[in-house]
Structure prediction request, 669 residues.
Amino acid sequence: MSILVNKDTKLVVQGITGRDGKFHTGRMTEYGTNVVAGVSPGKEGETVEGIPVFNSVENAVKATGANTSIIFVPAPYAADAILEASEAGIKLVVAISEGVPVQDMIRVTPILKQNGTLLIGPNCPGLITPGEALVGILPTMIFKEGNIGFISRSGTLTYEVVNLLTLNNFGQTTVVGIGGDPVAGLYFIDLLEMFENDPDTIAVVLIGEIGGDAEEQAAKFIAEKMTKPVVAFIAGQTAPPGKRMGHAGAIISSGAGTAAEKIAAFNKAGVPVAKEPAEIPELLKQKLAGLI
Amino acid sequence: MKIHEYQARQIFRNYGIPVPADVLCYTVREVEKAAKELNCMVVVKAQVLTGGRGKAGGVKLARNVEEAVNAGKQILGMDIKGLTVEKVIVTQAADIEKEFYVGFVNDRNTKTVTLMASAEGGVEIEEVAKNNPDKIIKYPVNPLTGLLDYQARNIALQLFGNIKHAQKAASVLTKLYKLFIDTDATLAEINPLILTTDNEVQAIDGKMNFDDNALYRQPEILAMREPDEEEIQEIAANEKGLSYIKLDGNIGCMVNGAGLAMATMDMIKLYGGSPANFLDIGGSSNPQKVIDAMNILLSDKNVKSVMINIFGGITRCDDVARGLLKALEIIITDVPIVVRLSGTNAEEGLAILKETGLPTVSSMSEAAKKAIELSKR
Prediction:
């Protein structure tokens, strides 16, 4: 088992004819993801990496039964692409595009809710269920099948930590990069709930960072609702206030959203927080053995 | 992106929100002229891109021209949180009956534009939020309808108590919401919004921040940008595809990925060092990017050593190493550099870097320790 993506995923790639869309379509197909269609208005009838291209998501869904979409279109068009997928009946949309205006995300939110569409991102690396499906841009060689759930607001920091887990024989059920934007689709608590309900996941690693209070909410959720152990890491303890640290959402504003507050919230919820990434596998071992 | 109060006041006026007249002044002589023209009790206010101006002595009431001149002398050139005051506004002093706070922000949790309002105006809203959270009204606006007239009126009535006053305040709220949406703001606040002794509602201080991701479609807002020295450097880095923030330590960091870059800074601190910067070079092995990044890093004369931390994913470490090699042929520096490569093809990458004689390691913690040691030589 896993969450969100698996062997039944039928993927449509929006922006398949662009450089990134084409490149990652090849990688996803190579990994075994069932990529069934691409969308690029005006290019219906062509193929990219052997995948048929359609003018609209609606046409792609009708012809192929696609149930999941990944979006590579440039940021100014991302909100439109998300809504197009949602209105065409896609149930899970993964938006890789970086630099989407916050107002665009606020406007799409109620429509996604109304249509029952789940969104991951934007500005995210996507997700992978090792051995089953890659819906994203993650480097596949570091992942391994197993029973640890993984959620992160970051990209390369995710790879760093997943690599450490794999080297320590902790495989993963599903690894999800939720993205670094202030207003995004699924947050930590949504995914924690999914991992809690996934019978194959035995523990969760959560990688947070400064800005907002998604980590504090996650800590509260873990304390109240979760039976499975969680280990966390928070990036940005040395980040100065008022500065965006690369990710649009990684900013300490008006003194709120500091790493210290987030670490305190996790400690209070009984979630061990690693001092550095290399400590995570050991904390996971101890937590699973009931030692901490 | 931030703008000055005088710029926010102008946006408010453009949308029909009542704001007392003000004059922007760069010299004491201009302050004198403005005070004479306004010919009333005035307030002289520092225009710097930081909060807490009042507490720092950057806002002064003046009953006559002489006092305004003195205030101008004191405020122009003063330092507020490391920023030098280069300009002030001289504005009509208002006869305040009562002060309120109103503002719109993008709320991450409700995923809406949220109205924040409080009858405790004139003080920092963060203080109210901390000490008296019950005194703040939070109203998430439905993005599909926008802020409706009756909603604005009911909230204003909760604040003002009197329906006549509330109707005036409601009009300010709907205008503020409209300008927030039109300009892709992330914050638009009026603090205080006042009721004057003759029953008028006025905005007498304003603050606005904007979404950097939306500046491409906000040319008028972008034209208002007045970056300080640090921001000029950050913007220049951005144009080269790098994300750079200067800090005050002495170990330069060059990392691929924002999260990993933050974790790298944290690790340097954890082992007793002090990071000189945040620098994300993104996922590319382009030698030019490394050269640009290195030039920015080394322009900071505090930098005593450099830690390059790359986790190779889709961009393979051997490609990164070739890029580094090319960059290092061009950059000549005495500052010691330690390189950490891990991930895809790390071994090949490290082998390529052997010939440079640079210390190369495969773990982040080793790299941090080495960079700290080198910084102390």
In short: The first strand of chain A starts at residue 11 and ends at 14. The first helix of chain A runs from residue 19 to 31.
